[in-house]
Amino acid sequence: MAELLPALLEDLNTTILLHERGTAERDAALRLLVDAARNARQTLNQTGLPDLAWVAAEVAAGAATQLDDPIVKAAVAWDRCGALLHQGSARETQAIADAALRDLEPLSATGDTDALVLEGALVLRQVIACARAGDADGAWGQARRALDVSGRLPAGHHDLRWQTVFSRANVLVHTTEAGVEVDAPDTGLAFVDGVDVPSMPSRSGSPTTGSTRHGRCIVWGGGLRRW
Prior knowledge:
Helices cover 64% and strands 6% of the residues. It has helices at residues 5-18, 24-46, 50-67, 70-86, 90-108, 113-132, 136-150, 168-181, 185-189; strands spanning 209-212, 215-220, 223-226.
């Protein structure tokens, strides 16, 4: 992936320059550029290069802005929030998530599945941002909102299309992390009941993990391990 992405991104940029605004070819290239840049961000994060991951997220944001599709812009906002959380920028994370959520409101109100999973995923970014800022009340308030959103999804739904893996189980993963951040791990672990976290799909196929200012945590079989 790391070897293929640079040439792919260059080819897509060239295609965009060769077509007029509003043409189907240009829009298709912009969507592919968003996907490629989002995958680049994920790869760079996994290889320990968060600064370059932010650059990739900004490339995706630029393409999404040109498309002016609220779903695509929300997916990119979710990526940007992740990059900002890596940098410890809780306030900026909340601002970007808020803006994307406002744009999503008309679609999520209709029950659109893509809008709902992105709404829930963005709210979970806010859960972590609040927790890392020491705002426990804000974190639990946002967690309740995310749990409500998960209840509007089809039974057993996990978001893989937009890479967020948002679901009821995913809410528990985030509340567990938030609980560690605000020194209330029992509250986080008990926030969502009746979910099987180990069965939740992931892009890597590995157990679900999360990073906290205290280290890393893993949710497994209803328990929390930290290292």
